[in-house]
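Weekly sync, protein design subgroup
Attendees: M.S., D.O., the rotation student, P.L. (late)

Item 1: inverse folding check
M.S. brought a backbone from last month's batch and wanted to see whether the design step gives back something sensible before we order anything. D.O. pointed out we never logged the input encoding, so this time it goes straight into the notes. Structure tokens as presented (238 positions):
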């Protein structure tokens, strides 16, 4: 994602715009397209899970393959990812919004809106009520909520994108690209971790990834939200 691609467009909305344009601001077509595609795929997958709550044909083989890897040296990472369950994750999310308000106030609306993915996840989680994995080597007990979709994966998508947008965007380009690679690796590792500990089926992880990408891209596509984040400060006249 180009760090400056939105700056000029978001700073100068078109005149004579419709009420929708006044509500959303300039829309990034590429990000909106990604959001729509990911959202439709998430809706389709959710319907399939409702119709077939048991693991799909590919879920158990992938789960078994992932759990067959000796990942004992990464127990600390699995514990780190698992720690963001329930009220801890809610607290961290609220803390991120509060810190943004304190040190980067213009970006607060964007951060708060992007966090709505969590409400979508929880609503779908309760409606679908898919059971947690059973009959595999590793399972995790005493978890809050159901299996689909993975809230952890959506959380790490959200947190990684916020870190890139709010913290890493002004780094030199090589470091900026390296940070994006690190963010992708983190999300992928978190996804595998949730499968490895038996908290989710692979299709649950895909659902969490889709809802996270869909809502995050939607948030980034709306100029009304991102203008305060991306717009350059005006030079002070003398």
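Designed sequence read out in the meeting:
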């Amino acid at each position: 994602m180009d760090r400056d691609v939105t700056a000029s467009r978001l700073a100068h909305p078109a005149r004579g715009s419709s009420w929708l344009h006044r509500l959303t601001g300039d829309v990034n077509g590429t990000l909106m397209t990604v959001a729509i595609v990911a959202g439709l795929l998430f809706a389709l997958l959710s319907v399939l899970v409702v119709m077939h709550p048991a693991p799909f044909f590919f879920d158990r083989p992938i789960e078994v393959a992932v759990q067959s890897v000796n990942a004992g040296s990464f127990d600390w990472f699995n514990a780190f990812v698992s720690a963001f369950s329930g009220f801890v994750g809610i607290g961290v999310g609220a803390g991120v919004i509060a810190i943004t308000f304190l040190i980067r106030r213009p970006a607060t609306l964007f951060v708060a809106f992007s966090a709505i993915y969590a409400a979508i996840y929880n609503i779908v989680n309760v409606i679908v009520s898919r059971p947690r994995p059973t009959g595999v080597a590793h399972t995790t007990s005493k978890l809050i909520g159901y299996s689909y979709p993975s809230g952890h994966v959506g959380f790490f998508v959200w947190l990684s994108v916020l870190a890139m947008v709010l913290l890493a965007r002004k780094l030199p380009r090589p470091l900026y690209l390296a940070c994006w690679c690190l963010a992708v690796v983190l999300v992928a590792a978190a996804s595998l971790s949730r499968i490895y500990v038996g908290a989710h089926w692979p299709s649950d992880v895909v659902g969490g990834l889709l809802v996270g990408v869909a809502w995050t891209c939607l948030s980034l596509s709306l100029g009304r939200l991102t203008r305060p984040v991306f717009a350059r400060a005006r030079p002070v006249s003398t």
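Discussion: The chain has one domain: 25-69+104-225. Residues 38 and 214 are 5 Å apart (CA to CA).
Action: P.L. to compare against the previous round before Friday.
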